[in-house]
Amino acid sequence: MLTSPRSRARFYARWTNYQKVAAEAMLGRIHDGDDAVPTMERELAAFLGVKHAVAMPQARVGIYLTLKALTAKKKKVVLSPYTIHDVINMVICAGATPVFADIDRKTCNIDTAEVARLIDNDTGAVFVTHLHGLACDIEGVREVCRAKGVPLVEDTCQSLGASVNGQRLGTFGHSGIFSFGMAKNVNCLYGGAVTTNDDAFAAMLRDEIKDFPYQTAELLLKRAAFCLTGDIMTADVVFPLSTFWIFRFGYLNQVEALNKRWRGEDAPQIKEQIPDTYLRRMTPMQARLLLPQFAQIDRLSQIRVGYARIYDALSRIPDIITPPLREDGSHIYLNYPIQVPDRHALLRYAMQRGRDLTVQHMGNNADYACYARWHRDCPNARATGTSVLLMPCYPGYGDSEVQKNVEVIERYFATAANTMKAAA
Description:
By secondary structure, the protein is of the alpha/beta class. Helices cover 42% and strands 11% of the residues. The chain has helices at residues 15-27, 36-48, 59-70, 85-93, 112-118, 138-148, 199-209, 217-233, 239-252, 256-262, 284-290, 297-311, 343-352, 379-385, 399-423, and strands spanning 52-56, 76-79, 97-100, 123-129, 152-155, 163-164, 167-168, 175-179, 192-196, 336-339, 358-359, 388-391.
């Protein structure tokens, strides 16, 4: 009998967050409270063990401001091509030149040897990403950057709370970039932060943003309404009865009008000037939403690590590339990425059998036509960009749902193996 699953994704926001947003909107307090953002910044800095945290309207604005400062003279930024395309846009908007370094297939993160090979006399920064909640070889990259005298910037947007040998990610280099967007494990609908131990740099960031207007109440309320709608559609009492079947029908029948509503970015476009709408400040309301969440980061990370322990059974299947299983805090598995030869065939099989998985929406930016002038051949990023499926890992998903995903994937590959044997 076909049964329906829990949703592939849920927002981390609690229902009380929507009550807080509604209350603050009705009271006109979204932009009130001069101490809220500084308090949040101090709490975040203390959690990470760093001197400064500076709130940003979005993580990508933090990337833009950081790289603009670091590449004032030396223009090249060495970075992974396997990321959202607006990261590349922020490098370009900062007046810098992206230099694409290939990745490690297992972690989907930048290859340290490639970083070392690509740094030259015009390199202004190395920008690493800890994708999917998996730490890159941050200690190795840090040693390369120190030896070559190049600033290291960490994109820690998907890895808040992870640590390597007791040190939190986002604190290994000159600066760390964090996101509090709606899909992150700590979120306030929209927003981010830059962290650093550099007093002058922190002061420069604060001076840059001090005259930005606050993020608009209209945008935040629209984002809250979108998240609330998503939470209702993916709730356990709604998703199994209706939403899943809509997802399933749309995917299995290639109904573009449905599928495009759930797809991520799939039409990269270059930006050479940062949009004015990006240049905003985090509101006090957003900071108040964030503050209670910091205390839950490590507990929720451990739940996801437990899911990764179950998913690791897939590492026994030769045709699957799985991430390393790390239980030391360095990998916190915001998602559990697997790489398979034909991800759409596997996804179709899983959907037909009542599992709700999703294709990773990111691709290899080094191959996109809009970035052709910076093209580099990155074969690992190219292969990864067409093979990743994301296994659900949010804390409320449940061990039994994880196990069902594993069993369906095992059956798929067992069936494929048996078919090949019969054909031989």
